[in-house]
Structure formats: structure tokens, C-alpha cells
Amino acid sequence: xxxxxxxxxxxxxxxxxxxxxxxxxxxxxxxxxxxxxxxxxxxxxxxxxxxxxxxxxxxxxxxxxxxxxxxxxxxxxxxxxxxxxxxxxxxxxxxxxxxxxxxxxxx
Length: 107
What we know:
The chain is an alpha+beta fold. It has one domain. It has two helices and four strands. It has a two-stranded antiparallel ribbon with strand order 1-2. Strands 3-4 form a two-stranded antiparallel ribbon. The protein is elongated and about 60 Å long. The C terminus is likely disordered.
């Protein structure tokens, strides 16, 4: 008797994988290549962190666009978080799943 294993691939969109994780109440989901070989594990916390950074970055872009296109008070100093591209332990690839090997473990 076999079960359908929930997994994802490196090219899957992160928000779609997160939807599956929420629906199935998963804390971790394996990442496999085209041949089904394991590459790593995506943790729910890491997925949420990457999604939050994406939203924060989009907010920055929208604020800057609003200041450039509409006459508003843009003279106040802005407090922004870092852009997703500033990640070091985990690479961000525009919403798709990605990872880097770090000391023999996948992050």
C-alpha cells in the first residue's frame, strides 16, 4: 500500500507550494529533481520568510512609484527592509523555490 507523497520541484512557484502546505497542514515538504532524487526540504518558516520579503520588496517599489508619479510628501526618510536579493543563506529567485548547499546541508 503506497501513499501519494506531496513534494515540490525547484521550478515550482513558492506561493503555490505554500498553498499546498497550508491546505495539507505540512511543516516541511521535500524538494526533488526531475528524476525524483531528493535535493532538500522546504520548511514552512523559510517559505513564509521568503514570501514576506517578496511582499516587503513590492511595497518598497510601490511606494517609490507613488512618490515618483503622484505629488505626495516623499521627503520623509524611508525605513525599508532589505530586498529579497540581499539573502545570503537562501537564494531568492523571483518566487520560485531555490536553495544553496551550505556546509553539507540544504537551507
